Recover the amino acids of this structure.
């Protein structure tokens, strides 16, 4: 259902995009932000959209001024990121926008950024005592997560037929049997995997780095243990865990800058939320 915010219609497709982004951000696990606030995902996504639109509308009507020179400089920076003028024009066509629309977008973004800066300018930096207290109360947030070093053999089946998928699965099943008989995993990866580099080694990684289907397998393997054939969105795999590093508590001195930034971010978000709440009280918001 679309939202009508001060007469501006926000289609449900856009709200759906925000909802999808939130789901992806939460893919790594833990308590979701909307759950911590006691909200369902749909309500939280709508609240985010309303806040974004209200800030944008306020910035456009009453926000800090942006000079044409500043817009020109930003537009020049964007152009220079492209290899040529033709590549820049092609990118505009792909985005289905004109340079005038791009200029308007630049001005809008700069006004929003400056308004947010104004809202947050009174936020105080945390004291050393506040930082240490926050660290002691939230040590779990500042730990090095568990990680594994793993290798894999993969056969991609994206875009193929059912017969292609069956052939890939059968090939890996036969290869798995050879691996159980002592065939080198690294040699098998170099000669049979669709990702043969480094003998199939993926190095060390923590949860949230790979797709869930892959992590669900490798994080349940012990060092030296090999999986059976399993499927992910990328195809069929055989994985082997080489090493495993347990979670590590990082001392305060090592994460002090991270603690400081976390507190500043929280205070700035609170300031923006309070400002948005004031805008919402005066806004005309409905559904269509």
């Amino acid at each position: 259902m679309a939202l009508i915010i001060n007469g501006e219609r926000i289609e449900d497709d856009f709200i759906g995009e925000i909802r999808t982004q939130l789901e992806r951000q939460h893919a790594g696990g833990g308590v979701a932000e909307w759950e911590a606030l006691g909200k369902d995902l749909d309500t939280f996504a709508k609240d985010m959209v309303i806040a974004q639109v209200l800030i944008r509308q306020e910035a456009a009507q009453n926000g800090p001024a942006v000079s044409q020179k500043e817009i020109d400089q930003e537009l020049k920076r964007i152009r220079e990121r492209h290899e040529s003028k033709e590549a820049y024009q092609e990118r505009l066509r792909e985005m289905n926008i004109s340079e005038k629309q791009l200029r308007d977008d630049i001005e809008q973004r700069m006004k929003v950024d400056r308004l947010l800066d104004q809202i947050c300018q009174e936020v105080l930096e945390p004291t050393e005592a506040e930082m240490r207290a926050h660290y002691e109360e939230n040590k779990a947030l500042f730990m090095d997560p568990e990680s594994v070093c793993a290798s894999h053999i993969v056969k991609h089946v994206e875009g193929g037929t059912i017969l292609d998928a069956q052939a890939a699965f059968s090939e890996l099943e036969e290869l798995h049997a050879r691996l159980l008989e002592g065939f080198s995993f690294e040699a098998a990866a170099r000669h049979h995997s669709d990702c043969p580099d480094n003998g199939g080694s993926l190095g060390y990684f923590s949860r949230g780095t790979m797709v869930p289907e892959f992590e669900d397998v490798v994080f349940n393997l012990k060092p030296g243990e090999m999986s059976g054939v399993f499927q992910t969105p990328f195809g069929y795999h055989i994985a082997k865990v080489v090493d495993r590093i347990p979670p590590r508590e990082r001392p305060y001195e090592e994460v002090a800058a991270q603690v400081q930034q976390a507190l500043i971010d929280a205070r700035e978000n609170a300031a923006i939320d309070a400002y948005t709440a004031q805008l919402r009280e005066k806004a005309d918001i409905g559904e269509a």
User: Anything to note?
Assistant: The first strand starts at residue 3 and ends at 5. The CA atoms of residues 2 and 11 lie 5 Å apart.
